[in-house]
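Slide 14.
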Amino acid sequence: MRILMAAAGSRGDVAPYTGLGAELRGAGHDVALATTEAFAPLVRAAGLESRRLPGDTRAHREVGGRRKLMRAAGAFVTEMGHGFAEAVDDGADLLLLSATTAPLGWHLSEATGIPSLGVYLQPTEPTGDFPPTVAAGRSLGRVGNRAAGRFALAMTDRVYGGAVAGLRRRLRLPPLSAPEMRGRQERANWPVLYGFSTALVPRPSDWRPGLDVVGTWWPHHDAAEHLPAEVEGFLRAGPRPVLVSFGSMAAGDAEQVSGIAVQALRRAGLRGILQSGNLGLAAEGDDVLTVGDVPHALLFPRLAAVVHHAGAGTAAAALRAGVPAVTVPVAADQPFWAARLAAVGAAAGPIPFRSLTAERLADALVRVTRQQSYARAAASVSRQMAAEDGGGRVLMAIRRMAKG
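Slide 15: predicted structure.
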């Protein structure tokens, strides 16, 4: 079967699909992944065909409030929508759509007759169990959570409105608004598989049929890959260090934030590895090392803790390794995941990025590295995640669709 996956956003929004795609390819399918050009090397490294989606989240990055995020998302979606149809010009038998590409992919599926399946990394369906991922992790009660979830979807449809109208004109389809298409998909119980662990987000009982939580999809990495020699040497030179990484959305004074991180590590009596990331963290010293991109699957099991932004992928990687965390959420869905990590006991209470100080970070590091309850909770979640088979569940769904 020719399968086209489409995903867009930050690195964390794309990387899990490289592992899922590699697993589908290993099962005998012909797999392509359409994403923005910045992530084409990740796609090719996984042995998948790379197809280009227009747009670049780095060109539209705005941090500093919901209105700015909405504006940045709208600009990105509009740019992506201009060339979305070209991604399927070479044909496909099945479309696998992420949460960011489904509101466009539904219209391609209508125009081409190609069936589609949702493969999402965040819970998007309204529920009374928890607030939407954009609600900063704060529960509003069951009625409030459901209302906020519906409002979040309405805002999403507003972001996609212009791109949807333009795409339907290009596809020569009759006018249909983004909310109308979403309603059509919901009434048809359009299937969505959610690629995160039930240990973090159990499937809500009030979700409609067709929505299932299947387990995490892990980014692809070469089985023969090793950690860089300087990282390996640093790990062997002393006690387990702490990784500090703030992902792709953090913005600010790199020198100041690096200084806060190093001060906190030294206050807590810990060695540290700073991952430079988009913020450009950097520091020098016998007790600290600065690195670029390093495979989480290789590094995390050898750490004492991870200080991270609570992106879905990084949060899952720390749990997979059984390592406790200190979360420093920046924006978007990060406060949601930070709250979930704290709820299962695998992380200290979140420290918002804008409120980060050396004192607060040091105190949290002391707690998660010295109180064994955090490590035990992370190890318990790790065992549950190991029993899940996210890729296998996607394969089962594809086989059912092929038979149906």
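Speaker note: The longest strand covers residues 30-36.
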